[in-house]
Amino acid sequence: MFILKSEYRIHEGPIYTLGIADAIVFTGSSDNTVKSLDLNSGNLLPFTVRSESSPISLLSIHAELLAIGYLTGEFYLINPTTRNVLFEYHFTGDAVFSLCVLNSLTLAVGLGSGRLGILDFVDYEWLYLEQITSDKIRAMVYQDSTQNIYLASKSGEIIGFNTEEFTIQERWHAHDGGVNCLLLASSNQLVSGGKDGHITRWKAQERVKSIPAHRGVIYGILEVGESLISCSRDKSIKVWDMETWKPLQKITFHQQSVNQLVQQNAHSFVTASDDHRIAHWVYAE
Fold first, then answer.
1. How far is CA 20 from the centre of its chain?
2. Helix (H/G/I), strand (E/B), else coil: 123
3. Cβ distance 18 to 24 under 8 Å?
4. How many helices (H) does the chain have, and how many strands (E)?
């Protein structure tokens, strides 16, 4: 089972997004700041980004490159060590909801309008920026073997997009009310979580298995060791057997919506909540 190792209160508002690089976790909050913690020492690091709007997406590309997306459309690439801004862009009238690394050169950016951007983060050039769905792109995962990126849309669709040809390969309705999170499991199967509270496993467009996992929107799913971890607006974190999807544990630590989780390693993960708390969870026999 997973036990609480540490909890942190470093923000004055709900925490919407997390990014992680080894033991350093980056946190984005409605208090309009991005902060960072060292999970090994438990110390707040001297890195804070302040803005006039809420950060809603974070991604640590590597130790010296952090991507930040905002509700008002600002997008930045920052070196968290030197605190230098390496690239900035403003998506006017839009919002940056999701970020995903494709390879060592490119980054996908999912927007609230349903546009997808693909950025060369070495030369800082947009390779692609087009509308591909009718609503927010809430999550993305990349499949290296096919060079496809799968996108979760608030429209309820999952979209398979080829990043070499810049073409839509497939799309299908997955969850009523919207798809909020995606996982490409070690088995190479796609797993989705939706507003309908279901977790679903897919083989191509075929629904292999679907379970009513939560009583609210599912905001995050992870594969940690041999377990599937999910978090939800219903305030809970749940642990499932990765193979059978049998429920193993329900964690009711957070007092409000659990908005995101990120994996630290094969036996630990971090969660963020509307209750202003960050929690670090580790596996214990």
1. 11
2. coil
3. no
4. 0, 28
Q: In 39-147, which ranges are E strands?
A: 43-50, 55-62, 65-70, 74-79, 84-90, 96-101, 106-111, 115-120, 125-131, 137-143
Total-model pTM: 0.96
Tokens read off for 144: 């290296």
Spatial neighbors of 211 by CB under 8 A, at least 6 apart, are: 198, 199, 200, 245
Region of residue 42 (left: phi > 0; alpha: psi -120 to 50; beta: else)? left
> Exposed, middle or buried: residue 87 (CB in 10 Å: 0-12, 13-18, 19+)?
middle
- What's the rounded Cα separation, in Å, for the pair 214 and 185? 20
Whole-angstrom distance, CA of residue 101 vs CA of residue 151: 13
- Cα(58)–Cα(149) distance, rounded to whole angstroms? 18
Give the pair of three-digit tokens for residue 79. 């070196």
How many Cα atoms within 13 Å fall on the side-chain side of residue 51? 21
Count of C-beta atoms within a 10 Å radius of residue 103: 10
Taking only the tens of pLDDT, the chain with its 285 residues reads: 999 999 999 999 999 999 999 999 999 999 999 999 999 999 999 999 999 999 999 999 998 999 999 999 999 999 999 999 999 999 999 999 999 999 989 999 999 999 999 999 999 999 999 999 999 999 999 999 999 999 999 999 999 999 999 999 999 999 999 999 999 999 899 999 999 999 999 999 999 999 999 999 999 999 999 999 999 999 999 999 999 999 999 999 999 999 999 999 999 999 999 999 999 999 997
C-alpha to C-alpha distances, 170 to 132, 150, 205, nearest whole angstrom: 12, 9, 8
Both tokens of 138, joined, read 């809430």
